Amino acid sequence: MVLCVRVPKSEGNHVRLSLKERGLLDVGHRIAADGDSLLIPVLSAPEGYECLEADLAENEHRETDYRMLLPEGIRSHLPTSYDCIGDVIVVKIPEEISEHAEDIGRALLQVNSNARLVLEDGGVKGELRVRDLRPLAGTGPSETRHRESGVTMITDPAKVYFNPRLATERMRVASLVRDGETIIDMFAGVAPFPLVIAKHAHPSVIYSIDLNPDAYAYMSENIRLNRTGCIVPILGDAVEEIEKLPMADRVIMNLPQIAYRFLPDALSHTKGGGIVHMHTIRERADAEREAQALIDDMSARGLRCRLEGMRELKTYSPTASVYVLDIVRLS
Ligand SMILES: C[S@@+](CC[C@H](N)C(=O)[O-])C[C@H]1O[C@@H](n2cnc3c(N)ncnc32)[C@H](O)[C@@H]1O
To answer: Where does 86-229 show beta strands of DSSP type E?
Structure first.
């Protein structure tokens, strides 16, 4: 039984707020209706009200930090972040707590009410950069519908690379696009860069290339879904396909492990004054020097260019980060 005050329904909100201000409201229990009255739980009897004891339901405290649902002994090893792709969560679990993987999955589902499935991330593999995933908790397929910057994308993290953490970078690139640009995304995946650009800018055409047939199928579906007429999906190798395309005002290269190998192909197909956004993984201590060395190497090969900017996108390891280099092609 819980101590509470009985007030007419018409005064309920006013009394509740006044009790709250005075620190007398019992937030651990729910307010209940009793005929024309409300029973408001209190911590101690306030003057001027009819007090009584009643059987009021407990207010559930909704935990928002999944780590608090797991044993204290493992909390310091638990990941502080994880990816939400539509209603699917992808989480990396450190080796030392691998025996708790299923519990971690259930805890993540409990605090993320929109999530349906939790997958353990075993790392990105192969040329197509597809993740090795294992279901930990929840139900249904790994295919999902992700919303980002006003765009809907269907993707399947088990078949295609997709990084929800690049949303800010995609909007940054979209904000740089001038009307009528010709854009090439050499490693487009399910086409998040092309779709966000098409939604927020007015390019004339965006060629969206990927080698993975599943990525091509999803990008084609996403283009239809978002009714974007300016994106041309292309299945194939970026080096071969770019040869068939017109010179671009802007080239996007999101293949951080090895994109630098394709930089000569990208620069050869960029107009003078055009720009290449190249993602790359670098040791933080050497990043700026290596970026400049790459530019000097390109210029020495006759592909004159200059480094306009360099931004750190995310941490890759204790000593390395993923960067995007904005490289301007000089005519
Ligand atoms: C890191 S993912 C980037 C996907 C996408 N841009 C995104 O932000 O989600 C790299 C993509 O490049 C594709 N890829 C790898 N080698 C390729 C090549 N030689 N030509 C075209 N695509 C390639 C992979 O299939 C993968 O989808």
So the answer is: 88-91, 117-125, 130-138, 144-148, 151-155, 182-185, 205-210
pLDDT, tens only, 85-103 = 999 999 999 999 999 999 9
Q: Nearest Cα to 276, choosing from 267, 285, 287?
A: 267
Which residues, at least 6 apart from 310, have a Cβ–Cβ distance to it below 8 Å? 287, 288, 291, 323, 324, 325, 326
Hey, how many other C-beta atoms are within 10 angstroms of the C-beta on 243? 11
Rounded to whole angstroms, the Cα distance separating 145 from 155 reads 6
Interior CA angle at 205 toward 236 and 271, to 5°? 85
* Distance of alpha carbon 329 from alpha carbon 270, whole angstroms: 7
Using the mean position of ligand 1's atoms as its centre, give its distance from the Cα of residue 189 in Å: 5
Structure tokens at 81: 């972040």
Backbone angles phi, psi at 241, to 5 degrees: -70, -35
Domains located in the chain, CATH noted: 2-54 (3.30.70.2580), 66-142 (3.30.300.110), 161-329 (3.40.50.150)
What is the structure's pLDDT at 211?
A: 97
pLDDT at position 165 is 94
Ligand 1 pocket, 242 CB below 6 A?
A: no
Mutate to test the pocket of ligand 1, among 211, 216, 241, 278 (most ligand atoms within 8 A of CB): 211
pTM of this prediction exceeds 0.85: no
294 lines ligand 1 (CB under 6 A): no
DSSP three-state, residue 203: coil
Residue with tokens 């502080």: 80
**Residues contacting 20, CB < 8 A, separation 6+:** none
283/151 Cα distance (integer angstroms): 33
> For the chain, which ranges sit under pLDDT 70?
21
Q: What is the pLDDT of residues 207-234, one digit of tens each?
A: 999 999 999 999 999 999 999 999 999 9
What does residue 106 show for φ and ψ, rounded to 5 degrees? -65, -40
Contact yes or no for 39/6 (Cβ under 8 A)? yes
